[in-house]
Fold this sequence. Notes:
It is a single chain. This protein is α/β, with parallel strands linked by helices. It is built from 16 helices and 20 strands. It has helices at residues 2-5, 33-38, 40-46, 81-93, 112-117, 178-193, 222-232, 250-256, 291-304, 323-326, 334-346, 376-387, 392-402, 439-444, 449-462, 465-468, and strands at 14-17, 50-53, 57-58, 70-74, 97-102, 131-133, 152-155, 160-163, 198-201, 240-244, 266-268, 312-313, 351-355, 470-474, 481-487, 491-498, 504-505, 516-520, 529-530, 535-541. Strands 11-10-9-5-2-1-13-12 form an eight-stranded parallel sheet. A five-stranded antiparallel sheet has the order 14-15-16-20-18. The longest helix is centred in the middle third of the chain and has 16 residues, at 178-193. The structure holds 1-O-alpha-D-glucopyranosyl-D-fructose.
Amino acid sequence: MGEKNRKWWQNAVVYQIYPRSFQDSDGDGCGDIQGIISRLDYLKDLGIDAVWISPVYRSPQDDNGYDISDYQDIDPMFGTLSDMEELIREADRRGIKIIMDLVLNHTSDEHRWFHEAVKGKDNPYHDYYVWRDGEEGTYPNDMKAAFGGPAWEWVPELKQYYFHQFSVKQPDLNWENPKVRREIYDMILWWMKKGVGGFRLDVIDQIAKEPDLGITSNGPRLHEFLRELSRETFQKGDLITVGEAWGATPAIAEKYSCPDGSEFSMVFQFEHMVIDQQEGKEKWDLAPLSFVKLKKCLEKWQTGLYKKGWNSLFWDNHDLPRIVSRWGDDGGYRVRSAKMLAAVLHGMQGTPYIYQGEELGMTNVRFDSIDKYRDIETLNMYRERLEAGYDEKEIMDSVYAKSRDNARTPMQWNSQENAGFTTGTPWIEVNPNYREINAEEEMKNPDSVYQFYRRLIRLRKTYPVFADGRFELLLPDDRRIFAYTRTDCDTEMLVCANFTGEPAACPLAAQWEDAEVLIHNCGGGFGEEMRPYEALMMLRKRR
Ligand code: TEU
């Protein structure tokens, strides 16, 4: 692609903030916008270019802000609109862009539009949502909501059901209605005027649903809607846009991330994130990670989008368990395995996303009681599975492995009370390991996970091969080693990692004897046997 044609976001590293768990500034136990502002220098030090902030709009917080009741206001728990403007300004001063989270598939049932919509079938806002006539107790069909229960909710006054893919308090918007689309575009333009640098689009592949056909994602009109959305809004600026698309394949992602800019910059795909669950079942139905499958999946995405689209690179977000607990070792090899996972991810082609605390090697949490959990998805699953006769211990094992709250415990800033997150009572308990794992400690320690991420970010900015190089998977069937090369016109880079806690034979060292080591997560050289979780990156001129 070459430096000239590269878009700014193809060289960028993005950091995700889950605002309620990042930094509290006023002692109410919930993170807020002033808290984020107070930590901008930390983000600057890390070296990231943009921050994606999970929703801070006005919301009853049924799904922690993914249920929006006013897109053009800030929820008082996070601050005010003027705090938001200050954040955009202060971030800009440090060369950091702010990416807002757009939830366009649904609103809160407390949104003004929905209040109007339930007033009557002839209300102008009625058709903003998805309705079906019917009788109480007989659902239009058997579709289920993502957070449990039927996807239909009865409104007795209207003798109609409304459709909701998520909680009952998240009614789906009707994208077939051009007025809905216009309202959304105007709202986005309003945020663009405020200087935001981009958008993350929540469950965007589910907007073009066809409930009568049982279709949720990838509906027939999806890309038509997306191209209109992009033309009317994003293309009027130089933004980074990333759609959340659980249902994407590389062929679909080619459309989303087409270099002509007709849709988005890129999407989050999740194929590599469901490899440790039983096929065709729910994420709670645990299965061991198939490592070879993981490598081949990532290879498919790396080669599939090469020169045709663009990948996002991530292990973690606010919906996923912590990667070091999931595929690394959060015990004795925590530091080394967290670095290994970082190296494997950051060496690939695409825009890397770091989820708050990942750069510290933060781990999953194991609360001793379900009462300490807060997430609607976790709590609903717990209740449903208990009723269905599952063993409590088995349910808790699923919670420990996959609950979204694993990622939502407060950011660990220092070893003081509540990890420096709040002076009040945190909305969810802090992970007790904050005394060992925290930012203050890691910023001082040259061998910390934090310093490793910092160096990875700098490497990406130094060597064009990170952005441009062609990906080739080596040793595809090896059950321990994750190795690949990235090659551009004059450079060759090798990323080689032992993905396991056992020593692993690796035939590559001899071929790379003359190369320069860019980064290495343990002492000593690159040998025929890799140590547990050892990882390194090497670079050489092409012969
Ligand atoms: O998540 C989309 C989504 O499909 C999730 O329900 C996902 O399946 C689940 O979290 C996996 O455990 C997005 C947001 O990222 C999530 O936080 C919201 O709850 C959801 O949309 C609804 O807006």
